[in-house]
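Board work, copied verbatim: Helicase/secretion neighborhood CpaE-like protein
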Amino acid sequence: MDLTGPPQPVVVTGDPELLSRVHAVTATLAVQPVLVDQPAEVRGAWASAPLVVVGPDAAADVVGLRLPPRRGLLIVGRDQDPAAALRHSAVLGAAVLTLPSGAEALAAAVGGRGGRPPGSGRLLVLTGAGGGVGTSTTAAALALTAARDGTPTALVDLDEAGGGVDLLLGAEQQEGWRWPRLAGARGFLGDLRGQLPVVEGVDVLSVARLPSAPPPLTAEAVGAVLLSLLRSHALVVVDLPRQPAVGAAEALRQADEVLLVVRADVRGVAAGREAARALAPACAVLRVLTRTGRRGGLGADAAAEALGLGSAGVVPHDPAAAVAAERGEPPGRSARSPLARGSRAVLDRCVPPVAAA
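↓ predict structure ↓
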């Protein structure tokens, strides 16, 4: 296996018929993928390859390698046996395609080498250490602040029991897709821009308010949607419920960084300690984002030190945010507000300059 020279897509399969179908797609793009017919050999290319395509025949062996999570991972099977392609997709966190019907989607994935330019598509997940800490408001403010600074940004609502982040933003009457439209998503999705409501430059994917509760979001749907958004946006901010379901847990798995929103007092830190204990095994990076109340409270460093975690900063209490919510206006709309200033400081810590450019 020659991995020298410019990075190329890697195909892991020993199935000659499947390989022939994959080559038929890559040849139209003048791309010559690297073939790995022994799954153990993919270790050397796992981190550097722009795209890894795994055949169902090799998927179980790749699972057994216990490699770290990565983006740009596809399981590509045959139309005649989609179940084989899906069997290991959740544990690998891989999108799924079948051929020949998925040839166009595979071409799009190969043509974009996974679709994510180096340094872009950062996934920032926020979850609260207790009720009423303002996680949704903070997530929305971070997204709006980033967009105001020129960063292509999406905001994703995964709180299926909540009222919908579009309501918080005053966008509940805007046309556009909500989660019910994408609940069956899996595999490779196209560009979602133009399909979602837009609030002050932020593409918003919200849960919907329906007469009866829809089925829970699946890991496949959440994974497919997040990967699509990460290809087209430099920053994706996710509002996660306190107790992530299966779909929301996929966001934790994919996250570049998880911010645990903690109230800046003794009870808040105690709740944060329990939440951090549950979250830490599922997170690549977990930091504390401190929310102060009307009377201030513990500083960011004090709260983070008490929890034994790094600090993402402080978002101060902003009385105007509650007023804005009642008026149906986005939080932190004024760049001079305490919420917007605090959000910018958090973004400076958590989003590398290349992603914010």
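The first helix runs from residue 16 to 27.
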